[in-house]
Amino acid sequence: METSRKHSEKYSFDEPVERKNTRAIKYEYAKRRGLPEDILPLWVADMDFRSPPCVTEALDERSRHGIFGYSDITEDYVSAVQSWYRKRYAYEVNEQSLVTVPGVVFGLYTAISAFTRPGDAVMLQRPVYYPFSSAILDLDRKLVNNPLVYQDGRYVMDYQDFERKVVENQVKIFILCNPQNPSGRVWTREELIRMGEICLRHHVLVVSDEIHSDFVFPGYTHTIFASISQAFADITITCTAPTKTFNLAGLQISNLFITNPDLLRLFKQALKKSGYSQPNLMGMIACQAAYEGGEAWLTSLLSYLEANISYVRDRLKKDFPAARLMEPEGTYLLWIDFSGLGLADAELRKRIEQKAKVWLDHGTMFGPEGEGYQRINIACPRKTLIEAMDRLKRGILA
Ligand SMILES: Cc1ncc(COP(=O)(O)O)c(C=O)c1O
């Protein structure tokens, strides 16, 4: 087994951490969902790694204070967010534009409520993170799909279909996923410009979900959509969070950037109507600590993840030569097409869940375009990944 001593010395990404009986949805709820109790979970997008020590220390310290009353962001918090985005993305976060919400998904729902009415059209690009569809449908908006197109081993956008559907449906909002979940695409500046120009031409707002932006592999660059031009910034709600990057999803903190004052006012009105006021105290503490002190940890994590991806790539070649990995440019999620195995989708799922006893996100959860695909979360110790690949080989091929 290739263990990476470099990482384990300082941050122990190799060391499995027991997550059962910790209220982790990834681990606890298999039985309730009709899955075997001893299933190995590589589904929901959180990591089996501890957050960096700077985060746990800050939380410990705050916890020792013992009073957890209503709290709000401070100048230090804003500076930490600003420094992170300035240093990593050369993006200036304007303090007035910063809005904290409990999560990016909460932000999506609020944006749809703020800027559209029931029946209005909201567009997305399937296959995509499934709560995008839920948000549109739960709020009784019209879902318009501009499917991604598979080309030369990766997804690309179909701009003609995009513009046609925007016009035909009078689309009000486009929800962009960048980097893209489940495929790991990191949209290039040129791709974003082409898409953004269509949105500008037809007065479409862009809700840009950039939660995975810190997971980008060498050779690729994350572009904050709103950073491309003032005109793009004016039509954009940028959704960010430290929660994927530092494994803090349970602490519920997300930072939105809305620079257009009119959009900001409408968004804040909708936020008030949702009943939300102050952010989660521990979320703020964790976010600030992570952005102030977590960068070296993230650098190590990224190389650990790259090595995990190589491991899965090799195992697929060896054990599943008919499967096709979409090479990830970012994220810790792998999008794998198993249709070459010649199994019906339901049979593949049955074998994975009941025989292999591995819990993955099935492709069709991301839209019918995901048929034959599985999404694997590789943010776990190598040992766990080896076990998962062994189980998949035994369960699918047996
Ligand atoms: C693209 C994307 N957006 C949003 C989220 C969830 O964000 P939050 O927990 O802040 O609602 C996820 C989690 O997997 C995601 O992949």
What does this protein look like?
- The protein has 14 helices and 15 strands.
- The model is unreliable at 1-8 (pLDDT under 50).
- It is globular, with a radius of gyration of 21 Å.
- The chain folds into two domains: 5-53 and 295-397, Aspartate Aminotransferase, domain 1 (Alpha-Beta Complex), CATH 3.90.1150; 69-293, 3-Layer(aba) Sandwich (Aspartate Aminotransferase, domain 2).
- The chain has 398 residues and is an alpha/beta fold.
- Helix 6 links the parallel strand 3 (121-124) and strand 4.
- The two termini are 24 Å apart.
- Strands 2-10-9-8-7-3-4 form a seven-stranded mixed beta sheet, with helices on both faces.
- Bound molecules: pyridoxal-5'-phosphate.
Shape: globular
Q: Main sheet?
A: 7 strands, mixed
| Backbone structural class | alpha/beta
Q: Which small compounds were modeled alongside the protein? A: pyridoxal-5'-phosphate
Provide the residue-averaged pLDDT. 96
CATH-defined fold name of the largest domain: Aspartate Aminotransferase, domain 2
CATH class of the largest domain: Alpha Beta
Radius of gyration: 21 Å
Q: CA-to-CA gap between the ends?
A: 24 Å
Which residues form runs of ≥5 with pLDDT under 50? 1-8
Q: Would you report the number of β strands?
A: 15
Could you tell me the strand content as a percent range?
Answer: 5-15%
Please name the CATH architecture of the largest domain. 3-Layer(aba) Sandwich
Written as H for each helix and E for each strand, in order along the chain, the element string is HHEHHEHEHEEEHEHEHEEHHHEEHEEEH
